[in-house]
Amino acid sequence: MTETFNPRDWSGQPSYIAPDYKSTPLRGPTKPLIPLPPSLSELTGPVYGQDSVTGDDADLTRNGRRNGEPLGERIIVTGRVLDEDERPLPNTLLEIWQANAAGRYIHQTDQHDAPIDPNFFGGGRCVTDAQGHYRFLSVKPGAYPWPNHHNAWRPNHIHFSLFGPSFVTRLVTQMYFPGDPLLDLDPIFLATPAATRDLLIATFSLDVTEPSYALGYVFDIVLRGRRATPMEA
Amino acid sequence: MTKLRQTPSQTVGPYFAYGLSPNQYGYQQNLTGIAGSQMAEGDVDGQRIRVEGRVFDGAGNPISDALIEVWQADSLGRYAHPADPRGSNNTFKGFGRCGTGTDPRHRFWFDTIKPGKVSDDQAPHLNVIVTMRGMLLHAFTRVYFADEAAANAADKVLNAVPAERRGTLIATHQGGNVYRFDIHMQGDSETVFFDA
User: Fold this and answer.
1) Which is nearest to A106 in space by CA: B144, A114, A175, A155?
2) What tens digit of pLDDT does each residue of A64-78 get?
3) All domains in chain A, ordered by first residue
4) Exposure check for chain B: N or C terminus, fewer CB within 10 A?
């Protein structure tokens, strides 16, 4: 027997083509995917641990400062990175990026007419500890309009990117906030099957909230687990 | 049955660059990128190559907001990862990342080394992740090399691909040390994507 990774949970993933998200029909693959038998190429993957994080990388209220604090509601975003068997994944890199409190990205191609915050950058990263915990400090990102359809607005969200233990456990996703009325109108969120949508929404936590300082949100992330499979002949 | 369900994927969106590829896009004053196009530095062993290409949508237009990631073995076919018991050149990390938004023609490029054979049944290849605005989950593909015909003919993955589509996985040799690998998301020449 050899150890490989569980397949993608296709029933819980959005489809490549989701017509209401109008960029997908010309960009998603249309031919059937070819099964790839696991080899070392899939059982290994990029290794980025503690040495990939320095200084204020995990504190987005600090890593873009020029002459003061960024504007907005301070938030703590924390949680665990786990596999499907609830095993914590330690020393796992998380990369995040988000809009500022006004709903504007620092990226030069973002032309939304909302102010850039001179003290907010919006990108950061951190690494999970031995129990799989991670923690970011930031400000709550604003909603922003996008050209998908008339009066389309993206719900507040933070982008997350993880490698996990191998090339096939890679995950790029978005974390949303509880109670956001835009969620029910967002074709990107709604492209996710109903059964797994809630996995994308963080939970507000008074325990994580720090008095007189910042609101706390918990967002756990689950990557593909391991399984034993017969060795290939 | 597993205890927990996998977190669903969502699109990387159009503004990934300052979070994932800050050096390439000029944001390194705030965040230093973990990886870029320059994968082979210093005195890493191996034949220096450049792999470059463009990503085309279903209308044949080059895509300016795609992110391409590459994972590869060293010149002796060893991965810099604990699951590869053979160990690797400790200075070659094997990972590269390039967005298509900084080149005027929307090319991605990787300056790297040609990987060795991971095993006898696999030809030299790069493992590739393709993602972009308009993709709700990333796609896996591979880059093989046109000048490795014998090894390609014995490759178990290529042999599992219908013959008429194999060519989409093979980078053409452009002369010198440059290989070209264009990615077609759709159409008659749609690149083979894998369920990895």
Assistant:
1) A114
2) 999 999 999 999 999
3) 2-27+50-229 (2.60.130.10)
4) N
